[in-house]
Amino acid sequence: MLDFLTFSFVCYTQGDAKLRSVDGHTSVTLGSLLDDQHWHSITIERYNKQVNFTVDQHTQHFRTKGEFDYLDIDYELSFGGIPVPGKSVTFLRKNFHGCIENLYYNGVNIIDLAKRRKLQIHIVGNVTFSCSEPHIVPVTFMTPSSYLLLPGKPQLDGLSVSFQFRTWNKDGLLLYNEFHEASGVLQIYLNKGKLKINVHKLSWNQADITTGDDLNDGLWHSINLNARRNRVSIILDNNAASTFHSTIQMQIYSGSRYYFGGCPENATATDCLNPFGAFEGCMRLILIDNQAVDLILVQQGLQGNFSDLHIDICGIQDRCLPNYCEHGGECSQSWSTFYCDCAGTGYTGETCHSCKCPLITSTQYEV
């Protein structure tokens, strides 16, 4: 029996080629950095137990587990999410947010059936037949000397700032802001993949918050920070469970400069101080005091200042795809390079290429 499924999509996740089989179920992951706001194509072809899974012309061939040569599928197929409560499935991901086109199953145009309101098609939630996602302008911090300086409204009673970031690096300064009249400093940075927020006055720490884990996984993460009077609140990844509050013994008045990603080389210690290392990665959706920052104006030199940035592109690369680590070595990466963990493989070297096999020597006997 033959099944054929194909479609294209625009997504706002990532992965590499992985194949897992548990209790007769086969799970395959293919593709990387697919949330780049570009169209991607998917084709799934099945003939008996042989399956060809293709994402953007990269194909994974595998055989399904189980006793049957046909698909033991449910009475319905769901695209974009699992709409029916009570289904006995394990689906830990959020519903899809983006656009899908050219959706065919065994030659049947599913979207055309949906447009014609055919009875066998059920639409749940906010689904439209147009792709009108707004264009989001990212910015790439390419080198250790990169930074973005944006103006703020000084002397406000408190401050509010939010943005999204993605990186492979475990450490780096995300934001530095000096309060009005040098009354204190706000620092947001990554340390060993965790998010840290410091609010201090001179050498006296007023607030020291740590949250999150593995935030250098290459995915987009969001930060929303609000400081009013003597209270600081931060939300990570729009998760209410990740909301932290801290009370400080000082009044916060917003400053006039917000440094993102790093400090200028000629910056004074009172203007911008970065002991954490520069951020190398991407940012987007920056809001200061609830006002969205137009990065195109920054690019045109009409707002703020910057150095070594690429605006309107996120230049992140997956250096572990393809995986150059041989013999089952595990690949990890930073912004500029990749590393191979050869533990347990019996091999060593930068790409686990050299065998640690014991040397075989020969003994010459005289007769």
From TrEMBL:
<dbReference type="InterPro" id="IPR013320">
    <property type="entry name" value="ConA-like_dom_sf"/>
</dbReference>
<dbReference type="Pfam" id="PF00008">
    <property type="entry name" value="EGF"/>
</dbReference>
<feature type="domain" description="Laminin G">
    <location>
        <begin position="1"/>
        <end position="131"/>
    </location>
</feature>
<feature type="domain" description="EGF-like">
    <location>
        <begin position="316"/>
        <end position="353"/>
    </location>
</feature>
<feature type="domain" description="Laminin G">
    <location>
        <begin position="137"/>
        <end position="314"/>
    </location>
</feature>
<dbReference type="InterPro" id="IPR000742">
    <property type="entry name" value="EGF"/>
</dbReference>
<keyword id="KW-1015">Disulfide bond</keyword>
<dbReference type="Pfam" id="PF02210">
    <property type="entry name" value="Laminin_G_2"/>
</dbReference>
<keyword id="KW-0245">EGF-like domain</keyword>
<dbReference type="InterPro" id="IPR050372">
    <property type="entry name" value="Neurexin-related_CASP"/>
</dbReference>
<dbReference type="InterPro" id="IPR001791">
    <property type="entry name" value="Laminin_G"/>
</dbReference>
<protein>
    <recommendedName>
        <fullName>Laminin G domain-containing protein</fullName>
    </recommendedName>
</protein>
